[in-house]
Amino acid sequence: MNDMKIKNNFILLIELFLVSTKLGLTSFGGPVAHLAYFHEEYVRKKKWLDEQSYADLIALSQFLPGPASSQVGIGIGVIRAGIFGGIVSFIGFTFPSVILLIFFAKFMQHSALIHTGWIHGLKIVAVSIVAHAILGMSEKLTPDLKTKSVALFSIIVTLLWTSEFSQIVIILLSGIIGLFLFKKSPSENNTNMNIKVSKRFALVCLTLFFLLFLLLPILNKSTTLTWVDLFDRFYRTGGLVFGGGHVVLPLLQQEFVQQGLINKETFLAGYGATQAVPGPLFTFAAYLGAVLNGWKGGLIATFAIFLPAFLLILGSLPFWNTLRRNNRISSALIGINAAVVGILIASFYEPIWTSTILNPMDFVFATILFSMISYLKLAPWIVVLTGVVGGFFFF
């Protein structure tokens, strides 16, 4: 009987790995597009979970910091095949883009092409894609004067107070403002998800999340090991990102560009390349880690930036049926999401705009690329390819 159960679990894991890898190879377009691909594959085709459970899982991923689509994928894996299912789902969806970006980082390091036109084209691609993301997020997350005011506060503080603590303070203050400024009506959703994780194990994951958050900076200051420094920076970034993959840009820029570890050109070229590959935007960390410390650095950075998301989704799933009905938590989240929009706008100005749009031709090309993705609704890889080819011929 046990042998049959083990065999069935192994078959489940193999199937989950194959399906998630297919998604990891084909899911272009960012978090919203990823969720659509997930719905088509996991809900409509495979019927591994129902519509309501899928909606609940998306709601949880929006509530937690970290990459929303990756957390949904991990959650589906956990619901389907337990903790190992979550791990397998994560590996399948994430590592195709991780491998591609590590190779791209090595190519950048061993070539003299960093200042050539196609790299500038990739930087302009980043301008158009982030502008598109800002408009989409602002429509959803800052629909009224109160949320727009929180976003404006966030823009001002981010640009005028360039400290490693500024964005943490902004997120905390915006959450407190949200508690008092926004009121949520009681939830009428009474459905429950079938979670194959015990509450005891969930508490271990949540405890580990906070312990690493507190202890890694102390360990980093007491040692000169490169991998510890990398792990600390990427773990801290992964644990502070609210609002999806695009918001990781200002935090990583603050950690690596402002502190002189990576120059702006290399940073933005990698961000543009991340748009060209399928899978989660958090795999940008693989590129940065590989630039700093080779392929080992790429793997360490990937593990570190995704670990908070993994611990939080495993730690929250068993409690989400209760948490999602807490109106005060929902109110705080409205303020935090509005602040995220402000942080993203500030990062759009510095470093993206200031280091990329240098003359009228840059602006014209950025406008064309923006129109391609926003109005013509072309696939992101087409926009990226257009940016590379246009940069090669015109810059």
From TrEMBL:
Its main location: membrane. One of its GO terms (cellular component) is plasma membrane. It is found in: Cell membrane. Keywords: Cell membrane, Membrane, Transmembrane, Transmembrane helix. It is a multi-pass membrane protein. GO terms for molecular function: chromate transmembrane transporter activity. The chain crosses the membrane at residues 12-38, 83-105, 117-138, 150-181, 201-219, 234-252, 273-292, 298-320, 332-349, 369-394. It holds the Pfam family Chromate_transp. InterPro entries: Chr_Tranpt_l_chain (IPR014047), Chromate_transpt (IPR003370). Belongs to the chromate ion transporter (CHR) (TC 2.A.51) family. This is Chromate transporter. It comes from Gottfriedia solisilvae. The lineage of its organism: Bacteria, Bacillati, Bacillota, Bacilli, Bacillales.
